[in-house]
Amino acid sequence: MTTATPAGPSPVDLRNPAQLLAALPYLIGFRPAKSAVLLGHLPPGHRPGLVLRGDLPRREHRAYQARALAAKFAAGEHTGVTVVLVGGRRRPGKPPPHAGFVGDLADALGDFGLPVVHALWTPAITAGAPWACYRVEECGGELPDPRSTIVAAVATEGGTVAFDSREELAALLSPRCPEAVARRADLLAGRRSAPGATAVSAAASAVRSAFDRQRRGDGPPTDEEAVGLASALELPEIRDLCLAMAVPPGTTSAREAERLWLTLVRELPPPERAEPATLLAFTAYLRGDGTFAGMALDNALEAAPGHLLASLLRRVLDRGTPPQVIRGLAAAAADPLSNFGLAPADFDADQAV
User: Fold this and answer.
1) pLDDT tens track for 163-193
2) What is the C-alpha separation between 242 and 231, in angstroms, rounded?
3) How confident is the model at residue 250 (pLDDT cuts 50, 70, 90)?
4) Domain spans of the chain, in order of start
5) pTM recorded for the entire structure
């Protein structure tokens, strides 16, 4: 299992190993365990670019995993990579565990002209856990409390939560009420026909109403409201308008949109669930949360294998493409937003490119 988080503004300084290790839960969205985390260095060399997490492989799979991870950095502008291995027990007087895998990673990254700038190990990302370097025996210490880092403060101020595990983060996408989802599947299957182009205005009204209910705190949608929103998001015009609500990333309106798409992922059955899951992935990716975006895309493709936009975004994410490269998708749909009353109040087209 591999997750990627794209390059974005971050107060992390790659030259401070202890602070970097403690910041990992906030960089990837959850506390990594039994993981290999690779952090690309952007020029001039101390800012993080692509952050990639993979499971620690079995011995016979180390070389393959190393090549697969290294290839993600091939198309970027990185000057080097910091390698962090989380997990395992260090024997007294011995080097940190997984040293062989560090060597495989160095070889694989070297094939792309990327040096390993630092190679770090810790058994767990917790306050007081030991950490060490693979290349310098005297390098090491104890981790600070992850919640005390500058990254944690910035993330908390921006509303970002670091979960204790990947499974806890993934649980956000689980159905709220399986019985309600099953009822809606029956209702959606009983529709006489797919919504047509003449329904665009009514569909926009349904989306507006959903935002109004969310702001009032009215709770989950009724069956009728959920089915109406599922039908609305099937319209390409509405889907494109909803993409535009992801910019500028991290604003109040973009956060409101992300919360609505997450609600609908939990309230709709497949294949209709794929539409809000894709919108959720796009919005999360633009604000720099590649981990959650990847989970949302997996959810979308499970609900509707071959979903065109979800498949496209999956390829973009797998290549470690910076969010600003695809922000134009949102900008292209921004102009007609006001025609349907969906324009976020603080939308600025100049910030969408």
Assistant:
1) 788 888 889 999 999 999 999 999 999 875 5
2) 14
3) confident
4) 2-159, 170-352
5) 0.77
- The pair of structure tokens assigned to 276 is 């809000």
Q: How far is CA 179 from the centre of its chain?
A: 28
| Alpha helices per DSSP H over 72-165 | 99-110, 150-157
Q: Is the peptide bond before 44 cis (omega within 30 degrees of 0)?
A: yes
Please name the residue that has the structure tokens 């324009």.
343
State the CB neighbour count (10 A cutoff) for residue 27. 24
Q: CATH for 2-159?
A: 3.40.140
Burial 114-151 (b: 16+ CB within 10 A, else e): bebbbbbbbbbbeeebebbbbeeeeebeebbebeebeb
Nearest to 322 by CA among 293, 285, 294, 353: 285
Peptide bond into 271 cis (omega under 30): yes
Q: Are 158 and 197 in contact (CB under 8 A)?
A: no
